[in-house]
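RETRY 2/3 - previous attempt timed out on the joint model. Re-submitting the same 692-residue input unchanged.
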Amino acid sequence: MKAIKVLQYGLGPIGLEIVEVLLTRPWVQLVGAIEIDKNKVGRDVGDLLDPPRKVGVTVSGKARDVLKRTSPDIVTHATSSYIQTIHSQIVEIVEHGASVVSSAEELSYPFVKHPELSKKIDQQAKEKKVVVLGTGVNPGFMLDTLTVALSGVCQKVNSIRAERVVDASRRRLRLQKKIGAGLSPDEFGRRVAAGKIKHVGLPESVGLIALAMGWKVGEIQERISPVIAESALSSDYIEVPQGAVAGVRQVAKGILAGQELVVLDLRIYLGAQNPHDSILIDGVPPVDMTIRGGVHGDRATPAIIVNSLQKIARLEPGLRTMIDLPPIAPAQSLPEEDRSVMLKTF
Amino acid sequence: MKAIKVLQYGLGPIGLEIVEVLLTRPWVQLVGAIEIDKNKVGRDVGDLLDPPRKVGVTVSGKARDVLKRTSPDIVTHATSSYIQTIHSQIVEIVEHGASVVSSAEELSYPFVKHPELSKKIDQQAKEKKVVVLGTGVNPGFMLDTLTVALSGVCQKVNSIRAERVVDASRRRLRLQKKIGAGLSPDEFGRRVAAGKIKHVGLPESVGLIALAMGWKVGEIQERISPVIAESALSSDYIEVPQGAVAGVRQVAKGILAGQELVVLDLRIYLGAQNPHDSILIDGVPPVDMTIRGGVHGDRATPAIIVNSLQKIARLEPGLRTMIDLPPIAPAQSLPEEDRSVMLKTF
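RETRY 2/3 succeeded.
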């Protein structure tokens, strides 16, 4: 089977880790890399990896040129969380006849926040017979797709409660700053009010779950609050005095007729004692799932993006979501028509 | 959207619970019921439910007649575990242009044990443009599909270990007998040797995982051993003296070049202290998942079968597996083209 031609769009931390994973897949041919940062343009993409090595793909700042020249089957995309920012990039990619798998959080379920742009992208993708998909670990997997997958064992679901608790101590400095670690509660409040402390994606996850369940959700409530350090904390980068902010707690609720159908609870802070992902389904039968230690987001998002690539070509064209996709595994080969993978009978 | 016309084939305990779940779905029209048991033929299928009620569908013993008369879109099928037994039933259903979702364990991954019959079913389904799928809680979900779904977060998977521990105390008498509860270890051994004590499906689950991962598994080892009662046990039905058999442990391993890639460990016995389902993925990142209490199989298998129905029509025709299917939720409505399920923006 022919390799899938993939182009990486965006070479920040996530984009570079996507490249690392793409390079481990024998069924992927990396045909190009796009980045606006002038310090990266013109270099071999391998120079930006750790450890640096020769890859043979030169970083370009001109999206149109490289799309035209390389004709990728799929573009893996990691530039911004917001549809307003990325939609012209998506449109340009689709114009060139390539599918897109993006880490943009808003793209995981864009139909409510951006109905017009969603329709436009959907129609254009259908015309060009390609697929546009937003995914990642959160939104895209832990709080939404996995919840829907688990609900498959239920005859009936009454309500869902999922939480993700991340110990930020060993994460990137950028993430530690993003969650407000080390701030005073007052300063934290000001930054929340200014929209500077905010994880993008919880309402999108509520939307994906509601879509799968066939629930018309009347109202989404979202609340951001600080997690206060009960004693002094420190990471490699930041000192947090007692009483200061250790990180963030963000809760989104999907409510119908006064009933909390979906509650998603995300806590990311320094020194979290029992990091985990958990999904509790009140249903018949009930499901009480926990992933001990939680799933490492910086590892998982690039994995999910690359693992989804084999499934993209089989989806109906258009703007799709993760609940349209069969389970994605880190397959080392392209699927063969012969499905008898055992050499001996059993 | 038009309802899906569903016919139930087989009215044992699983078949009847499938009917119960079908009746809760407004998007399903139950058009017929087939059963060979003369005591059930001719009665309203609702007479066989608990509590009995009028459903308006008469049980028929003549499959061909009722298939022809009712023209179902999909047949939900629960008659036997074995391809040899069911394949003529499947062929007859497909001849009538209906898809099949079956609880037959061997059908969940039939390509190795029955390559010729698999090919025949696959070709016939493709000709008739219908889908044939084998599923259920185990094989079909807990040890295989869920494992594959979780692996989506991994850049790389080295090996997988999944276990399902079921407390048989509150399960049906038939299941308690099937696992050998109350037997002496010698009698248990004789029944294992005679093929009378055996859960069907662990090698099939290994096959599904290997197929998803792109692993060519060289060898499957399967071992059945008794779980011995350390002290006297009893259920509502069976007394187990100390030293007698409390139930069964069955382990299947998928091995490649001496390495245990997949180990599936199923224990079903009276008095299991900590029933659970767990999946441990040695990968990057690792995943350590547990479902506390485990998922109730008699509830889950009918749920999975009914929940899969909405996804069947969108699959490529042929003999498919659960890893071809998007996540299945207990949706209360058929999917709409409008995916903005929130009434208010967020």
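The first strand of chain A starts at residue 4 and ends at 9. Closing ticket.
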